[in-house]
Amino acid sequence: MKRKNERAITRVVIATGISSVVTQLLIIREFLAQFQGNEFIIALILFNWLILGGIGTLLARWVTKRFWRATVNRLGWLSLILAGLPAVQILIIRQFRDVFFIHGSSVGFYPTLTFTFFTIAPYCLVLGFVLPYSLFVIRTENPDYPGTRIYIIDNLGDVSGGALFSFALVFLVTPLQAVFLANLPLVLSTYLLFRVSSRHDPAIYLGTGVTVAILVVGIFLEPTSLDPWEGKLVFYSESRYGRIQIQQDRDQFTLFVSGNPLYGSQNLSMAEETIHYTLAQLHQANNILLISAQGGMMVELEKYKPASVDYVELDPQVANVQFKFGLIKKIPGLNVIHQDGRAYLEGSDKIYDAIIINLSEPDTFQLNRFFTDRFFALARSHLARNGVLSFAMKGYDNYLAEPQRRKLSSVYNTVTDYFDNVLLLPGQKIFFLCSSQPLRTDIPELLVKKDIHTRYIRGYYYGNLTPERIQRLNTLIDPTVPKNRDYFPQLMRLMFTQWFAKFSTSPTGFIAVLAILSLIYLMRIRAEEFVLFSTGFTVMGSEILVIFAFQIFFGYIYLQIGMIVTVFLAGLLPGAWFGDRLRYRSKQTLAVADGLLIVLMGLLIIVMKHGGHHLPVAFFLVFGFVISLICGFQFPVALYLRGGDAPAVTRTFSADLIGAACGTLVTNVVLIPYCGIIWAGAGLIGLKLCSLIIMVVLHEKN
Prior knowledge:
- This protein is an alpha/beta fold and 702 residues long.
- The protein has 3 domains: 1-225, Growth Hormone, Chain: A, CATH 1.20.1250; 267-482, Rossmann fold (3-Layer(aba) Sandwich), CATH 3.40.50.150; 507-702, Up-down Bundle (Growth Hormone, Chain: A), CATH 1.20.1250.20.
- It is built from 25 helices and 11 strands.
- The chain has helices spanning 2-34, 40-66, 72-100, 109-141, 147-172, 175-196, 202-225, 268-279, 297-302, 316-324, 341-347, 365-368, 373-381, 402-415, 443-449, 456-464, 467-475, 490-502, 508-523, 527-553, 557-570, 572-581, 587-609, 617-641, 646-701, and strands spanning 232-238, 243-249, 252-257, 260-264, 287-291, 308-312, 334-337, 352-357, 383-394, 421-425, 429-435.
- It has a 7-stranded mixed beta sheet with strand order 7-6-5-8-9-11-10. Strands 1-2-3-4 form a 4-stranded antiparallel beta sheet, with helices on one face.
- Strand 10 and strand 11 form a beta hairpin.
């Protein structure tokens, strides 16, 4: 019977790993959809997830020792609760986002951190509690059961969950359908655990049935959980790249992608400004590249009778939906290309008369990559001698706030390195026109000469874009603002500062409190635990680096987030297996592993600095696997050196989780925004050097 219980608990641990990783990835994607695709939300979720998991792990030992003896039956009930919580959690996130915050408004750092913390707290606390509790249950019957083994079994479930999500669920099902499929193994393994423990209490059947019912009801509630507050939802799809929704309000259709209201069907002024400000400057508009499009643009483009219009849209579903609902029109010469715009230019040799960038404000890494030095150089190489590049950023009426002025200045200072003439035109948006030829501001006169008729520009241009306004805008540019580069995304630093300034807050207080708490914690742990803390910090910090670097170079993290998380988990399993079987386990072994982590981080910095845009996707995935392998290797060695008993298990588990939580947040909130990608990597190396020095000194003393 002891052996049967052990096998049944092992199945529950594996199923818990599958459920937890799928749930984590779904929660990340859900928050990305609710908070307009802001990548900073990823770090906030991971921080809260890890810190709550660490608290749950510490509670497991304290609660079990004083109040709640570890039993198979209690583990079963905890597992059923864990299986039912994800569906409830996703529905709560969808419904309460607009309850706690004004519908359609942006949300500040602290409210976002608080909202993510409390919405995921129940699940994460139970999840952190269950893993060490499973070990304690096994040890009631087998006191010599190694703690490393439960770590390896959990990793097996984590990797399986990541693979299931990345290769199947993300392509085939909706979020709550994925929750149902990912938690069925946990429900089944928990039911079998009850059966093996010979408990035939009817409450067990009732609890199992209620859990399955919650998962099924979640599927049926999914469509209504996405209903908008105004208008009605006429289309919904979970694309690989984001959540796509079409909302109708009377005769107006609006396209939402990952929570962002991108394009409407009745925005004539924006369509005219985007197309005519650019093409009016050309003698002949034969070949046009349009990176993303919105309602009315194709109609305005058609007036120039271009030979070809290459419309690049990363997500095929976005283009198809726009055609289906009449947001954009199919015109002669139109060629739809389903690819990332920057990747398309890097792989194409076609020359264009105009490149029109129709993207939102560069307030995410995915969009920022179209406003950097590398992209402007790329665009210039694909333009004809007198070709024009155009893009737009947020406009202003009478007053330009300082953060926005610095953002405009950074972009202006960057693009002027590649174009002799850069003209800024104020309006609903501030349009940048960039060319090697002189640019003119009398757009209506140019259109009259071309015999092109407009409605908005003809009637309102001269009243809105007076020479005084144009001159004033161009004189507001500050030449001292740093340029926006791939490796040091100045716009993201400014956006991060603007995020706090908008709500009259600062991250300084939070970082100070976190630093004080971390210092108190570090003063209370032993050297082996500090190694795991620093390793968890470095691994999660490097994972955040990879996520952001992936956005910079490839630009579609919504699809690849599952793959990245999976490879950072996959290395833990073979690493832990090897570390557990290493005969010579000592402090010197931990020091060698620290040295390897430092070398790997140094390698990442060098290759990104000297050719990051040429790196294949596989490089980042292999890097994630190897660095997590070393992390997995260190855990059993540190646990062995700490004695391997129950207190050692909870302390080492929590050290790893708390270090990972701190690494996630510090890298995201401090290192990347204020230091850039390269120096953020150097900061992680510095922490690991401290860990290495400590282990070398202790080894020499011993």
